[in-house]
Description:
The protein is an alpha/beta fold. The chain has a single domain, classed as Rossmann fold (3-Layer(aba) Sandwich), CATH 3.40.50.10420. The chain is 33% helix and 22% strand. The protein has seven helices and twelve strands. It has a six-stranded parallel beta sheet with strand order 1-12-7-4-2-3. A four-stranded mixed beta sheet has the order 8-5-6-9, with helices on both faces. Strands 10-11 form a two-stranded antiparallel ribbon. Helix 3 crosses helix 4. The longest helix has 15 residues. It is elongated, with a radius of gyration of 22 Å.
Amino acid sequence: MSSAREDILGRIREALRLPAPKPHLKAGSDKPGRAWLPEAGETQVDRLGVLAENLTKLRAQLVRVPDLAAAKAALTELARSKGWKRLAYHAHPDTAACTDGLPCEVWSVDQNFDKHHLESCDVGLTSCEAIVAQTGSILVSSATNGGRALSILPHVHVVIGRADQVVGDLTDAFALMRSRHGDRLPSMLSFITGPSRTGDIERILVLGAHGPKELVLILVG
């Protein structure tokens, strides 16, 4: 037993003499990242392309528009085509600019939060903190949503985002958060990656199991 122990320890000592790269760093870079994740693109055009591809794979809908007027028109068309009756939103300049005149009941959760009424809404409308091209994830916070309920209880979650919020990876997303909020980060942060889903039962994918069945990103710019 003692001989086997010394043999194992000897091999460990030998291995420790050989320098090895840190496993959480990509080769040739000191930037934290996971080597098994795909590249996010070198330019903003590349990142937007990667984002569009990932959102398609995640079964989320991407609507590109040039400005907020076009975003409002896109939201209006969605409300008409899908027959929405009630929409709840969290106050933000971008969401407020898109809610006036919609062909459905519009309710601001900031004025009167009622979770039972929120459950009866067809859609929750929010802004976001950042959009991660590498994973197709949308970073929301208490500052953009007012809480988790607005992006979970309604059957549809619509996000108004901007092209300059699209970043390469999670590190860039947190850097953008720090540049905006400094050390006073919002109390809630959440990454949303496609509609809610589960495959627990016989590995059959079911959308909307724990949240919205649909995720729509209206990207301005």
